[in-house]
């Protein structure tokens, strides 16, 4: 009976059922063991073998249930990830957030920085950056990336390096841009800060500077390079951009000066030139042989005697220019009054003397931020235009807009400002306007189609007259 106590209650209950014994749920293990032991069909060897089989079946069934749970859980997780991936793929397409890259007018380093920021803001995983970037590149640049191996194409850092190498954006190029880049006319100072920060990051990352100690050494080496003469710099031109350790650079410069100091400089003597005795053709005067001798002595370092006064000789005087028609010296032929000039009519676009007369049907008066101005209706504009003279610093919203004129090939970035338009005709309308430089102020507020619709809606609102 002692071996029966080693098995679990469920195994003993099943053994009792196999032997045809009645067991209740209230029976204890010891009661079940006594019932089995007192059974007339009890045999110890049979009981041991049967309990081993029951225990193995229970373990097998338990392992099967665990494996089934694992498979079910993995299938549910994969289905959930697939659903999220499909939803995010439909939702996150960066080509809808950025313009395609223009190799003629856009800096590749600035474009890649903007791409990385937009991708992080949109929640795009870094594994998808390469495929998203290829959709924004022209065909020639996409072919360069496709020529790389599959392993390198999967890593965004490798693709970025290939593009920077294609446009020769080496660390030395970033350094030159960082030190010499200037703000473009019309750009904000914040734009300059972003560009300088991008060039500095490209310079530092290209040289693998990762800590403050390396940055400090790089700055000292850069200042040291600025003090090196050009003839010495030309000697290290092949490795000049890679010398970022100031001690290594100083050692090379000291070694160069040491080698140059022991060199013997052999001065090269110029051969003495013999005077050439050549006659000048059509010379107005003939020199005396004595004067030739004086000139020869002067060439060998001796002072020559004063020359004769040849200015007293008589030469042919210069004739005064005269008109070919009337032979008058007071004017020339193009200005001669006797010349019959045909007056031709040239087609040109005429301009009115007063632009106010042309724009009068489209002009109105209103208060722009409490300043009275002429409002000019511009049916071809999608955003209002106002001069900086009528905008105070607190009116700026911090937003920008890219504006393109019909005669301009490039977009221009302009800041946005809040504008309050007040007029007895429509009341008060709050809108936004692009701000131009003060020097471009024409005295007009250009009203766009969007604001005009707001004014029409303000006019449609019913007015209630109070009854006293």
UniProtKB/TrEMBL annotation:
Bias (Basic and acidic residues) ranges: 270-300
Protein name from the UniProt record: CCHC-type domain-containing protein
Organism: Araneus ventricosus (Orbweaver spider)
Region (Disordered): 269-307
């Amino acid at each position: 009976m002692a071996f029966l106590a080693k098995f679990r209650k469920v195994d003993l209950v099943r053994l009792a059922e196999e032997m045809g014994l009645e067991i209740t749920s209230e029976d204890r293990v010891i009661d079940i063991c006594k019932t089995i032991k007192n059974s007339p069909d009890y045999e110890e060897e049979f009981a041991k073998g049967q309990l081993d089989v029951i225990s193995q079946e229970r373990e097998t069934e338990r392992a099967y249930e665990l494996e089934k749970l694992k498979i079910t859980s993995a299938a549910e997780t994969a289905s959930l990830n697939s659903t999220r991936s499909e939803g995010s793929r439909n939702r996150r397409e960066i080509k809808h957030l950025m313009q395609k890259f223009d190799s003629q007018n856009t800096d590749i380093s600035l474009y890649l920085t903007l791409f990385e920021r937009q991708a992080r803001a949109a929640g795009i995983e870094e594994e998808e950056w390469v495929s998203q970037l290829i959709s924004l590149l022209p065909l020639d640049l996409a072919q360069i990336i496709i020529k790389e191996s599959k392993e390198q194409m999967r890593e965004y850092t490798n693709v970025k390096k290939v593009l920077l190498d294609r446009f020769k954006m080496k660390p030395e190029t970033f350094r030159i841009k960082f030190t010499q880049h200037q703000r473009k006319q019309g750009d904000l100072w914040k734009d300059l800060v972003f560009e300088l920060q991008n060039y500095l990051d490209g310079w530092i990352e290209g040289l693998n500077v990762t800590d403050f100690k390396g940055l400090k050494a790089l700055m000292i080496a850069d200042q040291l390079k600025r003090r090196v003469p050009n003839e010495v710099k030309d000697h290290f031109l092949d490795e000049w951009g890679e010398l970022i350790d100031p001690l290594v650079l100083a050692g090379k410069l000291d070694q160069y000066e040491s080698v140059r100091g022991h060199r013997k400089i052999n001065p090269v003597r110029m051969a003495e030139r013999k005077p050439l005795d050549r006659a000048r053709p059509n010379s107005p005067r003939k020199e005396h042989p004595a004067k030739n001798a004086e000139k020869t002595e002067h060439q060998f370092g001796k002072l020559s005697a004063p020359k004769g006064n040849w200015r007293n000789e008589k030469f042919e005087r210069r004739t005064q220019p005269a008109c070919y028609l009337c032979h008058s010296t007071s004017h020339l032929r193009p200005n001669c009054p006797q010349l019959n000039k045909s007056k031709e009519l040239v087609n040109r676009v005429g301009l009115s003397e007063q632009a106010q007369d042309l724009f009068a049907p489209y002009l109105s008066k209103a208060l722009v931020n409490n300043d009275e101005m002429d409002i000019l209706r511009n049916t071809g504009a999608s955003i209002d235009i106002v001069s900086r003279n009528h905008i105070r610093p607190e009116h700026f919203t911090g937003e920008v807009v890219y504006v393109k004129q019909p005669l301009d090939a490039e977009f221009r970035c302009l800041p946005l400002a809040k504008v309050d338009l007040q007029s007895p005709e429509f009341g008060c309308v709050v809108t936004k306007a692009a701000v131009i430089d003060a020097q471009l102020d024409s005295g007009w507020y250009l009203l766009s189609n969007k604001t005009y619709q707001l004014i029409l809606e303000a006019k449609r609102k019913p007015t209630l007259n109070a009854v006293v």
